[in-house]
């Protein structure tokens, strides 16, 4: 496998971030902050500001490690989580902020240069600086990263010069605040906070990173921590060596306090130029991603080179920034730009908060963060927005909402009636209509479970398993079946009341209905087709094995055979079926150990693993342990274990792996038996070949293998269009499937039931995949299954009619 070319964590994320964090405010405003707030107030300001930024970094890390990031940075994270409309409404202001903030950095560089050379033409210097930086960015993004290494060294040298200057005085340490007239703690906080809002610089280069899902979290978090440490040290040093009046009145107090002042000037220029360079790289990439998604003009998506560097988007950004530098009025738009950045941070925090709160099964980030942290980060961003500039905050939000409305083109319809009920009805209608238009896929899959049974109030374990599967991530509907003639109206009402009381007592969230049907099977058939509204219907059914199949076999009726006809019908409807067998001889208190038996030859493995993950993560029985077990020949044991380990890591599901093999002596004996059977088959084929040619010569078309093969391929092609499977997922499953050849299958199947029974005797719940028996052999299949299930603890049999995508 060839490694992707791109930037690493340090050069691609950490350096751009830290250079933006250690920017102009550190050089020109940090002394002013300490002079006003004192050391105590400054440390509190630093703590609050950096906590908000750190929480945002955590949210970025959670979202980034749950998806395969591409170009676009923060816009990509938001749009892939909340959709194109929300992503565009935040992405366009983000691009404008990234582009126009370049002009602020360039003006800061020009003004500092004018202090040494007063006769310079500011506009010409700014345009020349912008042109030079844009040329560097257009030549190659790698050149910018190398220049940023040099600038980082200059900033570090300037900090060394600062810390070597001054005389420490513990007697005159500046601890208490001395606010200027018109300022207080929060106003000083608002001046400082933009210093720590530089963490999007590295995220914006996500499309140019070798491994974005790894580099973005590591680089972002470490840049925040490093920046916080530097600011804390500077605050302490100012309070020990500086004069409060001088710090408040002189913006260049760092120059006078440093061991060698010119290095501070170099640091200021390096900070402004590096921040401008970072945004010259970031802004066009955000614009390019917007164009790729069709949010803005497609022409901006065009790039050059292997990495598709945004040539046209960069030129447009140059023209936009140049126009702003000529026109001026930067002080008017500066507060709004900060608001745009904070709206982006708030959106990212909100996404992580909502994902953590609703617990979508597909949200399994490698970097986990509690939803409360993201909520605090989102609330902190909104709070800081109003602190910095209430008017700019209102303008910023109004602009975002306007773009959203333009993209969405929503027409509000009035729905008079009860106020609260009207809101819920409108939301339900809106949701159902949008669900009807959307295509289903395994990325957005969540369990919508239909539980059907007779006398449901007595099926406690059946209800518990159903709720365990849907507790945090799904929808559970229970249907209690009554056959005609065995009920009265009073009984139906009493049973419904009793069942709902039981659900409330056990804190089980489910919907309950009674159904009167001709018989059990006709009730299943009706419910499987009619339950739900539009696209909001069940995708999984749960039945009691002994009631649906086993009971029919024991009683000698034909219901069991008819049940398998229904199961084939469910497969055609793409409904997964779960059959729970409760073994009264092996009772467990809760399901704290769950064994999932992986059979590479079936399509149920991925689906069973997700179901096991749902049961374990529901915590209905405490902290269940999930075990993946499989059986292969001894020579393939280590390779299979490595493949399963990779499967677990890639799917982000916590599970223990056990790979077993048959007894060595039995393996040799059965291998010889397999060769003997194969020889007999080949001999019989040679004997019958002349007769086959004689009877089949009239129908040459029937001997063409490509006809059924072609039909299967076309069917698979259509299925892949409906529910595309990730190539990494498919390749890994094929490798696992390759571990079981025809000979292996022959050897393993001779003793597979005994191996499963022996190695799962201490489990609380066993999960097995099952395929449908051939028509006409249902009773024999049931007889074998009954004997097998009697040896096992409670067992959940799983039949999934489609290949479930595991990695998303």
In short:
With 808 residues, the chain is an alpha/beta fold. It contains 31 helices and 10 strands.
Describe the structure.
The protein is α/β, with parallel strands linked by helices and 808 residues long. It has a ten-stranded mixed beta sheet with strand order 3-2-1-4-5-10-9-6-7-8, with helices on both faces. The protein contains 31 helices and ten strands. The chain is 63% helix and 8% strand. Helix 19 (460-470) links the parallel strand 1 (448-454) and strand 2 (475-483). It is elongated and about 100 Å long.
Structure classification: alpha/beta
> Which ranges are low-confidence, i.e. pLDDT below 50, for 5 or more consecutive residues?
410-420, 552-556, 697-727
How much helix is in the residues?
A: 55-70%
Number of helices: 31
The rough form would be described as elongated
Strand order of the largest sheet: 3-2-1-4-5-10-9-6-7-8
Q: Name the beta content range.
A: 5-15%
Distance between the termini: 21 Å
Give the radius of gyration: 33 Å
**Largest sheet, strands/sense/barrel:** 10 strands, mixed
Number of extended strands: 10
> What is the typical, i.e. mean, pLDDT?
79
